[in-house]
Design goal:
This protein is mostly helical and about 210 residues long. About 65% of the residues lie in helices and about 0% in strands.
Length: about 210
């Protein structure tokens, strides 16, 4: 067993363990941290496939941006996890059926000819002067431009939804109305009140004995 194959087995094992802990952790923050470990393991697999740009993007975008968004939503939303766990057994049959269908679909895809043994030759080391960044950009903006734009729209909707879910209006919070501020006039800002001058009171005379 050579070093790249051993590194593949280690990264794959860590990825499977982290993915399992993501869905089994009771604490959502712990689940998010396990998801970070899964992203790092997937980045290691991309490095083994000579896709350095994808590995760096996976770490920068998903760990640096998407995970921050996940933690923002988890920590800002006041979610009662006890209420969420109450309907676990009620929704278990539906969730199990969907999971079984997804597993069956993955098995059918991986058992096809395109993913069979020897169907895809080993890429090996890229030739000198080859840029996987340039090749990736050519594929994204030519063959896969529509899925790329669709993914961008989905991420934009997710960001807007996260901001909308965390927006709360509290009574003790003061808000500014720019329209009301711009409509202010001099008469409304300044009010002159005429007050009569007060004379000092005369000193009281001491009573004679």
């Amino acid at each position: 067993m050579n070093l790249p194959l051993a590194a593949f087995y280690v990264a794959a094992a860590v990825l499977l363990l982290a993915a399992l802990r993501v869905i089994t952790s009771r604490n959502p923050v712990h689940a998010a941290l396990w998801l970070v470990a899964a992203f790092f393991s997937a980045a290691c697999l991309w490095l083994l496939l000579y896709a350095e740009f994808l590995a760096i993007v996976l770490v920068l975008v998903y760990v640096g941006a998407v995970m921050v968004l996940f933690l923002f939503v988890v920590m800002m939303l006041d979610i009662s996890f006890d209420k969420l766990r109450e309907g676990f057994w009620r929704h278990l049959p539906l969730a199990g059926g969907i999971g079984f269908l997804m597993a069956l679909e993955m098995a059918l895809v991986l058992s096809s000819r395109e993913f069979g043994a020897g169907a895809v030759p080993s890429p090996g080391a890229p030739p000198a002067g080859h840029s996987n960044t340039k090749e990736l950009g050519r594929l994204i903006y030519t063959d896969y431009v529509f899925p790329f734009e669709l993914a961008a729209v989905v991420l934009l909707v997710a960001i807007v939804a996260a901001i909308a879910l965390t927006l709360r209006r509290r009574k003790e919070t003061r808000y500014q109305d720019p329209a009301e501020q711009l409509a202010a006039t001099k008469a409304g800002r300044l009010k002159i009140v005429k007050v009569a001058p007060e004379r000092p009171a005369a000193p009281a005379q001491d009573a004679k004995p």
